[in-house]
Write a structure and sequence with these properties.
Ribosomal Protein L9, domain 1; two-stranded antiparallel sheet; globular; mainly beta
Length: 68
């Protein structure tokens, strides 16, 4: 199995890198590439993928909590 990385973009999508299987609630598989972006704002017309429709309409900059 290859390494998979999911990065959260400021004011944007989740970027997924690596070989992953993406399935819907019924188990149907989406066709994906080695890198793709998942919508997290709800504005995309191509859900679950990001189409850039969030631009200027979504403001979120998630940060991980640092564990001491």
């Amino acid at each position: 199995m290859s390494d998979v990385k999911i990065s959260i973009r400021d004011k944007g999508p989740y970027l997924v890198s690596g070989t992953v299987e993406l399935v819907d609630a019924e188990g149907n598989r989406f066709e994906t590439k080695e890198q793709f972006a998942l919508c997290r704002c709800g504005h995309s017309h191509n859900k679950p993928f990001c189409d850039g429709a969030h631009h200027g309409q979504f403001d979120d900059c998630v940060r991980a909590v640092k564990v001491l």
